[in-house]
């Protein structure tokens, strides 16, 4: 006697439900990847603008070097992320460029006539520059990263003392000191651009699944 097996296929409704679920999962995955790409591009844009301002400070120092012969002090060159007009490129050469006003008396501090070009920083929809730990909440700050929005560079490309967090002197080479960082967030994801005293930048990403910040080489900052 030949046994026949009955096989029932998926109904049209079941197939539609499965396709709908797959579509939702794919859509969420694509949205997550798009958000990560958007965050990465924004952080790199901010870091590039900070690096460009550091380079401008070094260049301007070379161009105004003769003023040192009169004992004038060159003021730092700044970028202020709460003043969007200062985030575009600083012109250091050419017919119309940034110039230095010498002080009225020897030993005084001069000032800059800043000339900008190109485009200012544009934040994607929903993103903001966090001006404080409260403004970044519910995302925590990096344990050693002080929220900062203004970075001042001296003529040698280092951060001016006014941009550095107040902290006890540290002579331990194995212990990291607090550093200023600009935080970018949309309330869920976050990126930070840290600027170390030497003027070099480091991009940090907030790991939402682990609830921690990770910098270069996936390192984490540990408070002393």
Tell me the number of helical segments per DSSP (H or I, 4 or more residues long).
2
Class based on secondary structure composition and strand pairing = alpha+beta
Spans of at least 5 consecutive residues whose pLDDT stays below 50 are none
Number of structural units classed as domains: 1
Shape: elongated
Element order, helices and strands? HEEEEEEHEEEEEE
Percent of residues in helices: 25-40%
Mean pLDDT: 84
Cα(first) to Cα(last) distance is 82 Å
Radius of gyration (Å): 25 Å
Q: How many beta-strand elements?
A: 12
3D structure, described in words:
The structure is a single chain. Helices cover 25% and strands 21% of the residues. The chain has 224 residues and is of the alpha+beta class. The protein has one domain. Strands 6, 7, 9, 10, 11 and 12 form a six-stranded mixed beta sheet that branches. Strands 1-8 form a two-stranded antiparallel ribbon. Strand 9 and strand 10 (190-195) form a beta hairpin. It starts with 11 loop residues before the first helix and ends in a 10-residue tail after the last strand.
């Amino acid at each position: 006697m030949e046994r026949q097996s009955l096989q029932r296929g998926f109904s049209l409704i079941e197939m539609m439900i499965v396709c709908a679920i797959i579509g939702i999962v794919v859509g969420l995955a694509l949205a997550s990847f798009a958000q990560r790409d958007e965050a990465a591009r924004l952080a790199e844009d901010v870091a590039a603008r900070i690096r460009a301002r550091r380079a401008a400070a070094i260049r301007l120092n070379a161009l105004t070097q003769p003023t040192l012969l009169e004992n004038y002090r060159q003021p730092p060159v700044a970028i202020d992320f709460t003043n969007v007009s200062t985030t575009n490129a600083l012109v250091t050469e050419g017919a119309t460029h940034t110039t230095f006003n010498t002080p009225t008396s020897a030993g005084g501090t001069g000032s800059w006539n800043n000339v900008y070009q190109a485009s200012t920083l544009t934040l994607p929809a929903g993103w903001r520059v966090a001006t404080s730990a409260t403004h970044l909440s519910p995302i925590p700050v990096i344990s050693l990263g002080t929220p900062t929005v203004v970075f001042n560079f001296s003529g040698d490309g280092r951060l001016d003392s006014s941009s550095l967090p107040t902290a006890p002197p540290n002579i331990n080479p194995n212990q990291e000191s607090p550093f200023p960082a600009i935080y970018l967030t949309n309330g869920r994801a976050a990126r930070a651009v840290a600027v170390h005293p030497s003027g070099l930048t480091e991009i940090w990403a907030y790991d939402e699944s682990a609830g921690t910040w990770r910098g270069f080489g996936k390192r984490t900052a540990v408070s002393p």
